[in-house]
Protein 1
Amino acid sequence: MKKPKKKSDVVENVMTVRNVDVFYGSNHAVKDVSLDIRKNQITALIGPSGCGKSTLLRCLNRMNDNIEICKITGEVKYDGQDIYDKNVDVVALRARIGMVFQKPNPFPKSIYDNVAYGPRIHRLAENKQQLDDIVENSLKKAGLFAEVADRLADPGTGLSGGQQQRLCIARAIAVEPEVILMDEPCSALDPIATAVIEELMEDMRLNYSIVIVTHSMQQAARISQRTAFFHMGELVEQGATSKIFTLPKDERTKSYITGRIG
Amino acid sequence: MTERSLTDMAGLAARHRAEKRFRWYGIIAITISLGFLAVMVVSIGSRGIGAFSQTRIALSIHFDEAIVDPLGKRNTAELSRSNTNALIRASLNELFGQVQLPSERRALYALVSIGGAYELQAALEKRPNLVGQTKTMWLTASDDVDIFVKKGINPALDPALRRLKPNQISWLESLQQQGQLQRKFNTSFFTNGDSREPEMAGFLGALVGSALSLLVCFAISFPIGVLSAVYLQEYAKKGRLSRIIEVNINNLAAVPSIVFGLLGLFIFINILHLPRSTPLVGGLVLALMTLPTIIIASRAALRAVPPSIREAAIGLGASKTQTTFHHVVPLAMPGMLTGTIIGMAQALGETAPLLMIGMVAFVVDIPTGILETATSLPVQIFLWADSPERAFVERTAAAIMVLLSFLVVMNLAAVLLRRRLERRW
Ligand SMILES: Nc1ncnc2c1ncn2[C@@H]1O[C@H](COP(=O)(O)OP(=O)(O)O)[C@@H](O)[C@H]1O
Ligand SMILES: [Mg+2]
């Protein structure tokens, strides 16, 4: 007997990448990549260093716009809209698709101001009370509020590495994005801080779609529902994480996950 | 000795020697440069210290109503113009009754500076009730008397060539015995503008002129410099044009300042007809000169802002301008301000461009606005150093001390400001 499909089971793509090529000058960094980002799932991008994971991730909210030598062809759609359409406002786009970077990079401002900055520039709060609420909720969602509740006025740069990274996550959450892009968010953190953030991501999945670049296959296996394996700019294989790690189709994927290349 | 000794290694002794030697080189280099500085400070200080005191002569002055206020109106404006010279002469005549010959009398009167009369006028203006009274007043002595008191007479010099005649010296000696000739703190040096008479010349006019010019210079060059740097560093496309601009700015920073003076003369005075010899034009010319320094320093400060901060802001959806002005510029501000103050300190010491736009004028009044004729400290030093009177020598050195103090204050301000801005986090 077939189970009726629940709504959450319906495969829904929040972003689609079609035939994207990226060049840095003459360096062909990403080659003809097509990828689906599922709603409310964690998509992991894995692969050896320099294979174009970060580059592709940055294409998803046009962070590469600021790099002059970077040329992008192909199509990236968010919610059915081509994000590289010339009528698209990147500011609005990045408010919908937030980003967390490899190295925690809080602003040299107070913890409060770090989180409040996004809502302020996007005018998400009408008054101080609303802003306070947004800051508190974002910090709670990032699992940081309990630790910093009594020192919101302290500098964000004074926190530990793991706390700083969660502050950056809170900062990204505060602008209410739909997709959160994370570029090796745990690579600068110790295992305990990493575990805290992995747990956090599992909770965040309910409200957001997450794309995470990671060099750790274990991490990809632990947290993601879908995995895409890159090699030398090519997307070699993508699919359900369980499949990729147990039954890789491509020889290169097999070599990588068994530790022979990378 | 074991194979892997931790205390002995091939070349260890030589390396230690090399390190020690290098430390010594450093210490010697620093000692030499500090030595030069000390020699400069001591030589200027010992030469200029005299200017902070001034010889004064105590005279019993009768403020004769018939002379200073014949109409008895006690009008301060008229009292400030009254013939106080006559009072001084009367007092001197009384003191040295034996002097009768007109030429001798002139020599006697010459002991007191013409500033003495102004001092009495000022006293009358402040206290009109002095009229009719007799009071002992300490009046500024002439520069020759001042030097006689400070340095004594040079016995090697032919008496005929001395500035003071023998009878003048004997009068001075009798005054000295009565305790009527004393060195006092030289307030007028701090409160007066320039003067032909060294004993009346002060640096306040030049100081105010310099301060006003710097104010104009800052108001113009800081915003323009910072905005240019922000544009070039953050907005401009990195291409051939921006490289050409960069090279040219670096070249401009090395252009001799007199060229900026000529440019200023041509643009501000010949074309725009701004009033010459004013702090406005001076400040504009100094701003031209300071701009390249500020732009270069500001660009370096902007470059030093970590790219991760820009990415963080852009990733949150901040626009280019928001990113720049909310995050990058505030972080670069300490560096920009330091560069600006260094540029301004250079501007403070500039003489040549100010000579070109006529700030070399002889200005007695203390300027009160940027549209009044003024001079500046370095130009004042230049003018005094060029004056024949011996008493200007110590004033020149003292003015250099004032200029150096101004510089120290500015640099200190830069350091403090920088610390304050940086310590926020
Ligand atoms: N800003 C950039 N400018 C020029 N080349 C870049 C830039 N960023 C990345 N690249 C190049 O693009 C390729 C892919 O880099 P990246 O996407 O960072 O790889 P990964 O994140 O998988 O390690 C590399 O060859 C790298 O040298
Ligand atoms: Mg990367």
Protein 2
Amino acid sequence: MDLFAFVKPKNELESSAEKQQNVPFVPEEMWIKCPKCNTMLLTTDMEENLHVCTHCDHHFRISAKQRLRLLADKHSFTEQDAQLTSSNLLDFPGYDEKLKKAKKKSNESVICGECRIGGIPTEICVMDADFMMGSMGTVTGEKITRAFERATENRLPVVVCTVSGGARMQEGILSLMQMAKTSGAVKRHSDAGLLYITVLTDPTTGGVTASFAMEGDIILAEPNALVAFAGPRVIEQTMRQKLPKDFQTSEFVMQKGFIDAVVTRGKLKQTISKLLKMHGYKEAE
Amino acid sequence: MADKNTQTNAAYEKVMAARDAKKLTAIDYIANMFGDSFIELHGDRRYSDDKAIIAGLGMLYDTPVTVIGIEKGRNTKERMERNFGQAHPEGYRKALRLMKQAEKFRRPVLCLVDTSGAYPGIGAEERGQGQAIAENLMEMMTLKTPILTILIGEGGSGGALALAVADEVWMLENSVYSVISPEGCASILWKDSAKAPQAAEALRMTAQDLFGLGVVERIIRQPKAEDKAMFESLKLLVSRTFEKNLKLSDEELTENRYARFRRIGNAQGGSLD
Ligand SMILES: [Zn+2]
């Protein structure tokens, strides 16, 4: 069973992903078509609107760096463990080339470090779809584990923004073990009485869903994000039956009881900063 | 060293052996290790009783033990009933309920894993398959009683790991443990599921591979149904491991378990020690 397959999102989301890859948000690109409502959008307007369609509210995928800019206070982020970088531990055929390609687009599958959100010191991890679809390798697991261990030590809350196609199959069993390792670190942070907020973004699937994505005290999600353990294609193949409408969207998963709130991108930062305050975390001097 | 082709076939033969319908299943292990002392306990107290997971209490010599096994079924009728050993969230929640119960009485937990993976279906997704597995991973890591997991056939990704956050993980000589099936891996990476043997080799999923990678502590000889002596030595081995771990304080026990997983991929660049 291809449970940890690099799940392809649904058709409309798929095309949005392709659009994003083929049409990066560079200044010389003036117009972009929304894959959901087909409206032509001005890229400058899009940027101003946090890469959300001004017409239909479709949330475009953004990079880890863009998301970090969205959530962290200006100049407040200090990156940690940037030196950790994926390597071909099992000599898996073709993985070296894939890594080389991925590293041209992004440094790693996750960026971790300390920042301030609304003035409050917070440990933050942001996964990056631009690096092998945010798949979980040993470095992903190690960086997230270290972030939780640092936060436990420094008594900080943790915010993790997830985006992941699932496990990094080129790292075999070592990839699977990261689910246990990160979960252990989350549990220790939790047992220390500290707050953990997850932000699920499109897509969050497989081994990431079945570990730290679903372990937050408070689980937020962006609208219409694919949130799944087994992706829709895997299920369709196994079941040979049509999936319910809106199956595995964040709204659907919230209705089933597994997400606390669906929050639009524009309200994400203020929601997180309110939650941090309500848990007694104070602004830094 | 054998040539590349033979190697490839060897890995995939292990996969085939691990999936062999004639091999012993969790029920056989429970019968041979716990005999008449076994009392099955049903249900997750939330939704239903998942028959893909058989669980209960049994006596290992003088020690009561909580045993949780993924059961594939031994014939067509049983396999249908057991959903081919593919558990739903309620199966993982039943397992967790009984692990928490074991913790309350500081009773050791034995998990027997044999699954191609957690069930990928509409109901399973609706009832939070990912959340159920995630919760097991978290809770098992700090469960204050000894846990030992033995892979007795297939260890399919998250669905297997959800019963394998243990003090030690052992594998039968003909068992496999992997993040993805070799067929799935081959069809995603190389668009050709016929390349499964190559994928099986590349994934390093046999008991021997995983022992080499430091992911499992012990490889167990494959027992046969009538092999009383083999089961007797397995019982002794399990019993000694529980005895050793029961002597540890809660802190030592959970610290060791955390360290066991913590060291995997912790060096610069993620190499193993
Ligand atoms: Zn639109």
